[in-house]
Amino acid sequence: MDKLECFKEQLRTERPEKWEQIPDLDLYMDQVISYMARQHIGLTPEGGENLTSAMINNYVKSGLLPRARGKKYNREHMGYLTAICLLKQVLSVGETGQLLEKEMEYNSIHRFYDSYLEILDRTYLQTAETIPDDAPEEELIQLALTMAVDSYAKMLTCRQILKAVSTEKDEEK
Fold it and tell me: Which of 35, 40, 34 is nearest to 24 (CA)?
């Protein structure tokens, strides 16, 4: 199976653990980093993304992630980090924080995480279906261009939505 077929299969099958499957034992930083590498396709050496203790500490300082309890991280931390690792690929830390803050106005971390997994599952499956089998390189390059432009448009829209809800909230005050 070639690399693209393998990736397509990952999109179809690999998901972060459901809330109930996230360890209910508190984890130390090195355990968190190891655990998170299994939560997302991209958090592998092949995926090109990484998570470090410095990044986690910055998320805490930025208010994206609650402080550890006695140097240990619990299920809630894992839920936040799972979403943060994906969101930070598209949004700034500030925008990610704003999105999470708005989500927490309406949801518990458990409900947010379940919703996040549903959206991730639906999006990964839809994306896998767009990857053709045995397509010529020219068609794949055109697909990559389309996906890049689509991603950009969606990122811009997300930012505008965050600005709009932020402005509305400021006007209400």
Answer: 35
82: Cβ–Cβ under 8 A, 6 or more apart, which residues?
A: 16, 36, 39, 40, 113, 116
In tens digits, what is the pLDDT along the chain, a chain of 173 residues? 588 999 999 999 999 999 999 998 999 999 999 999 889 887 665 666 788 999 999 999 999 999 999 999 999 999 999 999 999 999 999 999 999 999 999 999 999 999 999 999 999 999 999 999 989 999 999 999 999 999 999 999 999 999 999 876 566 65
pTM of the model: 0.89
As given in the structure block, the two tokens for residue 45 are: 């050496």
Coil, helix or strand for 73? Answer: strand
Cβ atoms of 99 and 90 within 8 Å: the answer is: no
Which residue type, as a one-letter code, is found at position 27? Answer: L
- Cβ–Cβ < 8 Å for 76, 23: no
H or E stretch covering 171: helix 137-172
What single letter denotes the amino acid at residue 44?
T
